[in-house]
Amino acid sequence: MARDGRAERLALLGLASPALLLVLVILVVPVAWLFYVSFIGADGSFSLENYERMINRKSYARIFYTTFEISFLTTGICILIGYPLAYFLSQLPPRVANLCLITVLLPFWTSLLVRTYAWLVLLQKSGLVNEWGISAGLWEEPLKLVHNTTGTLIGMVHIMLPFLVLPVYSAMRAIDRRYLMAAANLGAGPVRAFWTVFAPLSLPGLFAGSLIVFVLCLGFFVTPAVLGGGKVIMVSMKIASNIELFVNWGAASALGVVLLVTTLVILWVAARFVALERLAGGGH
């Protein structure tokens, strides 16, 4: 039996070896190379200068602060908009809800770069939003809606909103409506039943969706680069400038390592509160 068990494990290993080799080539090797290059100094020797630079220069602290600030704000706005939207969709009949979900998924059918430049056209001083606001008498002078934090947040919320709505909607649809009926039978009104029964049961989906949005925002590049106009500098943009302008692969790799480790720590902490398979839509 032991011999048969070993043979079975070897057979399974053989079947899984192509997938393991693929993961090794496209994931493990590049990440290992990233860690290695981050410890190479300007003179080509092993050094910690790339990490020391991040500690000693205040500009790096501001970049990380901006990255986390934009990520938190984007996640918070997505929650404020996405949770009520997901609740509304969850209360519709399944066929109608599926049709409405198509509108949530429509942005995925358009290039992210196209969507970002569309917001640039809409929000610039001579854009449609300012022209409509001035013609309607809401304001007299064009508002500065791009090349700042405001424009960056608008674009990122638009792009990230579906990533929050879908997990929350899935969690809400999985809630057994008999729980609400039981709460009503025990004397709870609609509002109390929502806050004491429905909302707590939907929190795992909200947590998973918020985590997805926050982690994706940490590495965002296109939207802050276009709508921020060079005034909203995030870590991904600093990595790009280190390579494109200074050709400093060590500094760029060190930033990438710090961002990667930070993301893994966030996921590890999040795993203490919710099973990570929820991020892929599995489990309830």
Describe this structure in words.
It is flat and about 70 Å long. Helices cover 75% and strands 0% of the residues. Helix 2 crosses helix 12 and helix 7 (149-173) packs across helix 9. It is mainly alpha-helical and 284 residues long. It has helices spanning 2-38, 49-56, 58-90, 94-105, 112-123, 128-135, 149-173, 177-185, 190-218, 222-227, 235-244, 249-271.
Which helices and strands, and how do they pair?
Elements: H1 2-38, H2 49-56, H3 58-90, H4 94-105, H5 112-123, H6 128-135, H7 149-173, H8 177-185, H9 190-218, H10 222-227, H11 235-244, H12 249-271
Observed structural traits:
mainly alpha; single chain
Question: What's the overall geometry?
Answer: flat
| Strand composition percent | under 5%
- Percent range for helical residues? over 70%
Mean pLDDT: 87
Are there runs of 5+ residues with pLDDT below 50, and where?
A: 280-284
- Provide the succession of SSEs: HHHHHHHHHHHH
Helix count from the secondary structure assignment: 12
- Computed structural class: mainly alpha
Largest sheet: none
- The overall strand count is 0
N-to-C CA distance: 38 Å
Over the alpha carbons, how many angstroms does the gyration radius reach?
24 Å
